[in-house]
Protein 1
Amino acid sequence: MLIDSHAHLDSPRYADDRAAMLARAAEAGVGAVLSIGIGEGPAEMRQALDICREYNAQRAAGARLPQLYASAGVYPHNSGEIDGAVLAKLDALLAEPETIACGEIGLDYFHEGAPHAAQRAGLIQQLEIAAARKRPIAIHCRGKDGAKNGDGDAWGDLFPVLEEHWRPTGLGGIMHCFGAGWDEARRSLDLGFLISFAGNLTYPKAQALRDVAGRIPLECLLVETDAPWLAPAAHRGKRNEPAMVVETAQVLSGLRGMEREEIAAVTTKNFFRLFHLRPDVGN
């Protein structure tokens, strides 16, 4: 069994075939999916939880679908929308048992969005709520290309925030869709994070990323799709979906000299351990 540790199941791109898409995931051996609750902004944070409940009810009634879990958070670009009402909404969502993570949250300096200071402030506010609710976090971090020790260095800004506001909680989390180098991976591991790789691991020009993936301790690995984006190389340019996490796992298993079933077992165990879940999800 594989777990897709990060998919945007509430994307409008699934509006016409969400149930069929989830059935394809189950058929491919995906036993669980973490449905990311950022929507297009804070007003849509709840959509992931609603989808989780809708399809888990169908699964309980006998439909062959993956077990769904939810997250909730405010994406970095929407940090300027954070106010007391948004934070109260986030807190309420994290109190729900199906909402197992806060995220994706973090810093993004690559695209135009909220000012960097607002992103850092919003991240800290969300870390405080996640800590109070004892929820691990899913971090998004992307800096400007080539930026080091400057205004575009999102990783350089992220680690001091996590050191001060997150490391003491011991809750850990996921570095989602990891795309940085070994130094960033090592610092993430030191902070207790799992490293999750998405479809970009399969791209021909991603050898540097594959080199990093080959060095991550097995007990710290996860796989994801980041669906509907970042479809694996064989489907590049098409809509991604959880069933395709199998292809990322296949590349990762090759890097580690393991069978895909072994990588599936390891990453599933890691997911359950991080979120303190019982490994009772069947295909």
Protein 2
Amino acid sequence: MSTDPENQGHIRPIRDASTIVLIRDGDSDNPQVLMGMRGAAAAFMPSKYVFPGGAVDPNDGAIALTPAVPAHERALLSNRPVTAAPPSPEAMIAAAIRELWEEAGQILGVPGDWDGEVPDDWADFAKAGLLPTGDALQFIFRAVTPPGRTRRFDARFFLARCESLATDPDDFSRACDELSHLHWIALSEARTLDLPFVTEVVLAEAEVILRTGRVDSVPFFDNSGDDSSFLRIS
């Protein structure tokens, strides 16, 4: 089944998106995850607790990551395209970093000067004198929103550690108002929140990775076609 918007008729087009699962005290017996609540009037997942994330923007593909995305991550992210023109692995990771900055006021970056013109949605990030880093994120999950939803995304989920932040993990003063009730919550308690189903599944996957330290393959809920399927990308 084509995912080209022009060929989908009444079916909503699928947009590429990136989401970040930010973990604090990941090596302890009580790791925490950063979550916030979407507004009651939001078109997508209203009043649900989610991780910071959103659609990949065109400007994200022009962002230079320092250091670059590791080769194994590039290979995983390039696997099984769904949209007609999927973004580059670098764009997906840059989008996750930008969304964390916009929605939580937190920066995954290293000191450095930007070359050339800075896109508007990266301007405040650049003013901090930091460059987004390509090796701080680990691709752990992927899911395509099923048909019938108000919006549909091919979402990649990335795990990152609080220790990689260049900002105070308890300071959300620079966050936009898209997510409210931003807070760190123990993984053992996060499932008591009002969560989308896919968020519950990602939390479970993150727990396994923190416990074992391994990612042998990446789970993929593919709802892009007429039939849903569960795959593992390796």
Protein 3
Amino acid sequence: MAPETLLACCDQGRLWDADARAAGPTDLAAAYRDALAVRALRIARGEVPAGYKIGFTNRTIWQRYGVFAPIWGTVWNTSLTHCEGAGAVSLAGTTQPRLEPEIVFGLAAPPPADATLEQVFACVDWLAPGFEVVQSHAPGWKFSAAETVADGGLHARLLVGRRTPVRALAGSGVALDDRLAASGVRLLHEGHLIEAGQGRNVLDGPLHALRHFVRELQACPGAPALRAGDVVTTGTWTDAWPLLPGQRWHAVFDAPLGELSIDLA
């Protein structure tokens, strides 16, 4: 599938047809080449990369979607919104959108090559509760792993809540990792509990997910380097839930991670 076709489907909010999928990548290496080509097209038209999303870190949903390892994609200035606990996001232009409650990190510095957990922790400035709106241009959310990569890592929107300096939560990577892994989240729609999840669902903890991503990004040919100021959202603690305009969702993370509400337009 040509990068121009991938970008046009994303811009127009339309599903891939059978011919486009037949021309798509069949392995992850080709899929990342396509995704990086789309990234270059978006930069050329003025969009600015703001960080990254890590997808399929939650092992509890691998069987459901048929993807059995993490992937990553770019977060953009046009897809990122910050708030202090409640925010609004438009679903306009998204395709089959779903919602994921996650923990987001903000980087103070790029981690070194082959970073340890403690070296990754040393490069993190803050963390925050987040909602990622994911999407799929494959009909019915039926796809291959390569297709999810070519589809921008399924990223559509990211709402980041109130930020907390990581050193206010823990003095080391091990301590932060343990605290996040043991934390839970309750996902509510219109006040009704939909699902509960755990931090350990995402590769045993969000900091482990971040370390995995750092190594994968560094090993990907042609991939950009991480930068100070990048945000990285580390994967859903629950399943991804279908969305409609007009809905309100709420995530309650165990203290002191905080709460986050999202209104969808």
Protein 4
Amino acid sequence: MISDRLVALARCPDCAAPLTRECDLVRCTGCGRLVETGGGFLDLRPRAAFAEQTKYLEHELHADARHESIAPPVLGSRVRQDMLRRFLQPAAGDLIVDLGCGNGRAMAWNAASGAALTGIDISPFFAGEALAAFDLILGDLRRLPLADASFNKAWSLDVFEHLSPQAFRDVLDEAHRVLQPGGVLFMYTHVRRNGWPAVGVRLMNRLARACERVGLIDLRQERLRKSDHLNPIADHAELRAVAADCGFSIDRITY
């Protein structure tokens, strides 16, 4: 979906100028760039791509077509969703951006809140349900094609572990820029120095591998997805320091 609201808050990733809608076309008012809209989203990737790119751009990671539909949140997804709702409390009147929205599933899970939702991802594998219902941008989180102070809330689920330390800082800087003063960001990720809950995770991973050995499950796609992990943050102390450098303060950390 490409609403007038999305066109109004979007910015050219190359010159930062506003966009204008001309009949069925969307154009940058600064450099004149014609923005692709045929997929049901604004293609606002910077013309000069970053050298560091995620493996999630590769079709191989999406060969199982999991992205094409949105299922209800269960197990780990349910944990993330419950945490997000408790922390952000999305409601009507909120302006929320999903940083690294994937196929758009978290927006679908929170659509009933009445908040105005915008999703951005570097990978174009959006679900049809998300394309029909939400404002979506194909763009790089390190150069968000969005106006300053456009949102009062943001979330990012399972994204930051895929970034290098510099990219992590760049994304946090951009998130701070597009949030209004007093805005809040919910981040779901992990650090390299694991806490006590990691014991349970390791046990579950061993059980999963045992199930795979006897042919009960196939973990090849999951291994492909996790092969993209760079894990830029060592521990909570480093997270607090990096967040402070980027203008944030940590409200709370939970497992």
